[in-house]
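We modelled the chain as a single entity of 168 amino acids. Its sequence is:
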Amino acid sequence: DPAGHLLRVNQRLCEILGYGRDEMTGMSVNDLAHPDDANIGTEFVAKAIAGAAERTEYRKRYFHKDGRLVWCELSSSMVRDEAGAPLYFVTHVNDITGRMRVGEGLRESVEKFRALSDASFEGICITHQGRMVDANPAIIRLLGYKSAELIGMDVQLMVAPVDRELVL
């Protein structure tokens, strides 16, 4: 409803959050929300009630009945009566917890690689289509360039002419 209480939920939402339909009916949408995410969507709700917005999409974290965190992607639309008065919101909820875990794992891997690369005494660089896209401090010292000069540089310019064929 416009005040944020759940009027009706489907079985899939019950599965995502671990509650039965009877348990969820009447709850506030923020009863299960992570405290840091409780205000996500409130600006849209105010605008929708005022007639300044009809639809939005956002991500929000909720707590499953067993206590674990569930990441959700929501798409919410305001439904109005014939006179244009707000009746209720229809919100589609997708569980994206798996996708968020993969993304977090990737971020952690990148951070570990960055830490190892930065601490290495060996020169390490990453190239893409013949251009330098990343370089650790050791290779920057070895080649004598500043990082800003090195990034984007054609790798062939860093290789002695007699060695270019071997490198390519």
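As a brief sanity check on the tokenised model: The two ends are 64 Å apart (CA to CA). Residues 97-119 form the longest helix (23 residues).
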